[in-house]
What we know:
By secondary structure, this protein is of the alpha/beta class. Strand 8 (167-171), helix 4 and strand 9 form a beta-alpha-beta unit. It has helices at residues 2-29, 36-65, 155-163, 176-186, 254-263, 272-280; strands spanning 98-99, 111-114, 121-124, 134-136, 139-140, 143-144, 147-151, 167-171, 193-197, 203-205, 208-210, 223-227, 240-242. It has a domain at 100-280: HAD superfamily/HAD-like (Rossmann fold), CATH 3.40.50.1000. This is FCP1 homology domain-containing protein.
Amino acid sequence: MATKLIIKKSTKSINRHQRNYLLRHRKTQIGCTPSPATTTVIASINKSIYKCHRSILCLFSRLEYRPRTKGFKILKTRSDSDSISKPAGYRAPYSLIHDRSGKSFDETKKTIVLDLDETLIHSQLEKPDVPYDFVVRPRIDGQILTFFVIKRPGVDDFLKKIGEKYQIVVFTAGLREYASLVLDKLDPERRVISRSFYRDACSEIDGRLVKDLGFVTKDLRRVVIVDDNPNAYALQPENAFPIKPFSDDLNDIELKKLGAFLNGDCDKFEDMRVALKEFVGKDE
């Protein structure tokens, strides 16, 4: 027991002396000039802290002005024509408008959009068995081709009468090099057909060429498309007047029936789509 007490007492005495020594030693260090090595180390640490502080500031300044998209791509604002729902695979077309009459296009006036081939005319590379009306020779891919054109019965009278009341637009899937020459024959004085759209204005959906009426006018209440191909008006079927395809039947009366509708039933409705729904649903 005595041995343990002696050892414990002597240990406390040594620890107390050590603490006093350390206190005296610390007091002597206060106010002393640091060594050059210590100054260098402190300066290096301060410089590193300064650089780190600046890097953090630059990082947060960039983040402050970055749009918070949460991983989503910001899309451009869509036009009114784009607001129309499009089927999957829709690809916006490169639209080209060709003014023919020189008159400004009136958005408030009712518009008739006409297809060209198999609707107003029929053309072929071989000379037909029936009489043809004219020939056009476009240059396509560096080669001059000859097309024999047959006009649908009544087409001249139809265009003249309808053109007095409506704006006429031709929207064709044919190439401009060919179709523009046909239009020059149908409307040589350029007084009837206001505008024309060619293949480069069509949309391609699932390998099919589609004509978007949103490129013709913004007001779809006041437009009718006449086409023999249902794929052509797939985006706006409620605006379509289906017509039988024409080849060489010289007794065809489709344009007479179309003219009767446009000059009769269509006048009773402000929204031409309502007139089409009622007329097309009738039994012939």
